[in-house]
Automatic annotation (TrEMBL):
InterPro entries: TPR-like_helical_dom_sf, TPR_rpt
Sorted UniProt keywords: Signal, TPR repeat
PROSITE patterns per UniProt: TPR
UniProt key word Hydrolase: no
TPR repeats: 97-130
Protein name (database record): Tetratricopeptide repeat-containing protein
Range of residues in the leader sequence: 1-28
Matching Pfam families: TPR_16
Length: 181
């Protein structure tokens, strides 16, 4: 405990804490999807291995595509979009609805909205009942000023999981107030 406090105090002296410099995993903010808030984010160049429950070197990691996909989403939700894309590049099965959705999410958050939409549309083709991709596609349409298309996605989500699911509520909130993106 004392070592951790000393380590944090030394980082604070610089005026900010650089989470990626901490030796212990930093938990990502946000949830939903495969990654969720329970997947730690590791230092750059590492990946969280669910089996060993620790951060390991990315190059030597023998982790599943699902593990890599979940970890990439965790990085994206933590605002580490370029790193998320780099991890997604290591997934063997690139033609996967979640991989394409998370690639779209990270790309959109980097300001490349049209490119993000193209990934979302590929994901929808693979799994039309995947509510999370429809939420993010709707958000991208809001960014583009296409509220009509966002509302179409909202109606699709309603058909998939109703108005009580997180994806419906999140997209509806963004449609009502685009500043929530």
């Amino acid at each position: 405990m004392t070592t951790t406090i000393v380590r944090i105090a030394s980082l604070v002296l610089g005026g900010c804490i650089a989470a990626s410099m901490l030796s212990t995993p930093v938990f990502a903010v946000g949830g939903g999807g495969g990654g969720g808030s329970n997947t730690p984010t590791c230092k750059k160049g590492q990946i969280y291995d669910k089996r060993s429950k620790q951060c390991v070197k990315q190059q030597s990691a023998n982790v599943t595509d699902e593990n890599r996909t979940d970890y990439a989403y965790s990085l994206a939700k933590a605002g580490r979009y370029e790193e998320a894309l780099a991890i997604l590049d290591t997934v063997k099965d690139q033609n996967n609805a979640e991989v394409l959705n998370y690639r779209g999410y990270a790309t959109r958050k980097l300001g490349r909205t049209d490119e993000g939409i193209s990934y979302y549309l590929q994901s929808v083709k693979l799994d039309p009942q995947y509510a999370k991709v429809r939420e993010y596609l709707g958000e991208a349409y809001v960014v583009k000023g296409r509220i009509d298309l966002a509302k179409e996605q909202l109606n699709m989500i309603k058909a998939i999981c109703g108005t009580g699911c997180e994806e419906y509520q999140d997209l509806n909130a963004v449609i009502l107030d685009p500043s929530k993106i």
